[in-house]
Amino acid sequence: MSPQDVEQAAGETASPVRGARAGLAVAAVVVALEGAWLLAALPGAALVSDLGAMLVAGWAALACLAVARRHPTPLRRFWALLAATMALAALGRAVWTVQRLAGGDLPHTPLIGALFIAGLITGTAALLCAHSAPHTTVGRARTVLDGLIVGLALVPIGWVLVFRGVAAADLADPLRTLGLLYPMLDLMQLTILVAVAGRGRPVWRPMTLIGASLTLRAVADAGYVSLVAHGGYTAGHPIDLCWPLSYLLVGAATRYPPPPDQEGGDDTAESPLPPWWRVALPYLPVGGAIVAVVLARRPTGQTPQLIFVGMMALLAALAVRQGLAANENLRLVARLRRLAYTDQLTGLPNRLMFLRRLRLALRDDTPVAVLLLDLDGFKQVNDRFGHAMGDILLTGVAERMRAAVDGHGTVARLGGDEFAVLVERDRRVSPERLAQRLLTALEPSPDEEDVGVHPSASIGIAEYGPQHASHSDLLRDADIAMYAAKAAGKSAYRSCTAGLRESAVTRAELIADLRRAVDEGQLHLEFQPIVDLVTGTVRSAEALVRWRHPRLGTLYPGRFLPLAEETGLILPIDRWVIHEACRAAATWRDRVPETTVSVNIAAAHLRRPDLIATVTAATATAGLAPGALTLELTESALIEGSETVLERLRQLRELGIRISIDDFGTGYSSLSYLHRIPATELKIDRSFVARLDDDSRAYATVEMVTRLAGAFELSVVAEGVETERQHAAVAAIGCPRGQGYLYGRPGRPAAVGATVG
Ligand code: C2E
Ligand code: MG
Ligand code: MG
Question: Which of 48, 309, 708, 740 is most exposed, with the fewest beta carbons within 10 Å of its own?
Fold first, then answer.
């Protein structure tokens, strides 16, 4: 970063920056001059050294103070504490100088010690206030302890390195041996700095400079202690240069702008785990300390007192550190467990938790009931409005359920749009009442109804009884009841009964059988003729699927298509039907070229983008002109359809494929909507035709629809014509085409082929 950037980033006016830069230059010159003086061993080196250190430390204090006033609040404390540290260093040196000049050789007095300790505290506190330092008290305590462990472990190591060769008599002065504490405390701070700085990525430049400063001070202090111990130190020794240099580095650190905002210390964020060596760092010196303690033993077998005290302190620090770690581990385990057992979206207990509670409740052998709730039409909401909307809906449902259950049971989300309530023991509300309450709570508000994003719910209830061997039996029964509720219509609940269970077993079997039906060729098509009511000729037929079940005989669509729709098996079935119908129609057209075929398409298929590909593949394979194929879609499937569905229909129309609205009159579609559907045909539902004989309103309806269709230029087919009177009525109304048992029952393709013509 260039100095210009620094200025801009800090948002400062030019003059303080220029002043700061000049200050740094002067401080650097002072250090250089002092260096030259000390190295050349000019007279008065001791005083020059003292003055240099005082000046540079004082300047660094001012620089830190200045920057503290400019930086944002969290950093303000960091710089202010550093300023205090530098000021204490300057003060300490001043006292030292005075006492030295007053006659003390190397005045290690308690006052100076106290100033040193104060500086140590402010310096450490500054590091703990860095933006990347841990934010919690425990995190800070852990960091300080790590530093303390390293520092204390270095006491015996330092002892061996510095004092081993020194005669015991020379070590009698405790203030001398206590000098060993200086480098030790430096290294403690350095450890804390490494721990703190490494958490912000990338490392903030001032932290690097302060690290360099601390390293330099540690080297200087170690060198000093060693020199003093061996009697090689006099005031003004070139090693003195290290201290002002270390202050200079701190002062230089003030030139950098605040770090970019980052969640450096957030323990909950997905911050990468620290490398192993960072975790192990505080413990590596401990091993060295153990070796050093052995080496430090005097020939008399005595362990020096300082080492003894140091080791005791080290043990204490390690114990506290371990205690903190253990406590943190426990908290982490608790958090992980909470995560594993709750649903992230809704905050409800998840399936795992629900099953656990259920098993526990069953073990207690008390009355237990399970309510299984499934949203009807949730998938459509997800498909039409997107997953974000789906998520909002699910959280809303969870909230309403929790409020409705109101402590009378445990609400859980089992996954997707499936929820469950566990009702236990001393329940004061019956499961049925609870189900009713849930249904009421989930009823859409008027505006939710308008938007059409609020699906209704179906609830299945199962009460634990002797017929249940395990919790999975109970859940299966709740599932059976839930499907019964679904079949009963929207917003309903059902309790599982013996009868339901039996029919569900066949239902489950039927689903399993249906999976094989397409592959094993158990499906076949029947075709029902569609008759031209004016000429009496047959030019078209509707394909109707049948299933020749190996045990149950021929099954009609009403028996197995709802299962197929529920399980998604409707897609391969419809695909097979389209192909077969196209093939049959192609053979009829060999004889009568204008023959067409109608195929029913499930609503689920309409929502799939591959519908067009399926249809074009079928016509192409069969060699059938697209205009000879009519897709029948029920009115309700079309009403549910979104804009994409309409677009898909338009594309089909462009390909020449015809669209028929099946069971017209049952789906409450509005006329305006009819206008938007690119249909070519209406099929009047057979319920109207059936009532033609004796219901004038049915007659009026058929008449009106026929006229309406004419206005929209749609072809019309009257479905379910069974009697001559019905035939006469639809013919009189002017309905152009009819379909029904009167003209022909659904039959084999060959039979229909014979009637065509
Ligand atoms: P739909 O499309 O309305 O088909 C007409 C149904 O009415 C057929 O029942 C047919 O046998 C019956 N029907 C025809 N004429 C008369 C009559 O005069 N009186 C009476 N009472 N009924 C008559 P089916 O074959 O049981 O099919 C029922 C429904 O199943 C169909 O209604 C259609 O919606 C659906 N379906 C049939 N085949 C398929 C298929 O391959 N795919 C899909 N997705 N749905 C199909
Ligand atoms: Mg049909
Ligand atoms: Mg129909």
Answer: 309
